[in-house]
Design goal:
- The structure is a single chain.
- The chain is an alpha+beta fold.
- It has helices at residues 7-16, 71-75, 113-123, 134-144, and strands at 30-34, 40-47, 50-60, 63-70, 78-87, 90-99, 101-103.
- Strands 4-3-2-1-7 form a 5-stranded antiparallel sheet. It has a two-stranded antiparallel ribbon with strand order 5-6.
- Strand 2 (40-47) and strand 3 form a beta hairpin.
- The longest helix has 11 residues, at 113-123.
């Protein structure tokens, strides 16, 4: 299976999934992205006894939901990737199939996963940049009275 998390992220994900606070609306720890698309997964928990399963926010059947994600399935997603090179006077492009799910090493969650879900439902995509569509973010941050980390 592909490695989607840094060691620090993995430790926090396992703490979140340890059952100490079951059902807690944790702050997401990792952001996975399907390269070349708007598809994203915000990962909240990993389970020690089920290492292939994560809990997070994702798009499913016309809605954004918080639920279980099978990491093996995500790790096997492949898609077209173009490799280009010059050969003499010719420019050639070759299509290759490669893993295209990546994790954002710079991602730092700021708010509970439910906030990201409400914003995603309104925008039609998972968004982590609070500086875009500020009025939508403010509406949900004010409703849930979440302290802002600015």
């Amino acid at each position: 299976m592909m490695y989607f998390f840094s060691e620090k992220q993995k430790r926090q994900l396992l703490i979140n999934g340890s059952g100490v606070n079951p059902g807690r609306d944790n702050i997401p720890v990792s952001l996975l992205t399907l390269t070349g698309t708007d598809q994203k997964w915000l990962i909240n928990e990993l389970y020690q006894n089920r290492p292939n399963i994560a809990l997070g926010l994702f798009f499913n059947k016309n809605d954004f939901e918080i639920g279980e994600i099978t990491l093996d399935v995500i790790s096997k997603l492949k898609g077209p990737n173009l490799s280009s090179e010059y050969k003499g006077n010719l420019f050639t492009t070759t299509e290759i199939s490669s893993p295209i799910v990546t994790f954002d090493v710079a991602f730092v969650g700021k708010y509970p996963l439910s906030i990201y879900r409400e914003v995603a439902r309104e925008l039609g995509r998972i968004e982590t940049d609070t500086s875009t569509n500020l009025s939508i973010w403010e509406k949900y941050l004010n409703r849930y009275e979440v302290p802002r980390n600015r």
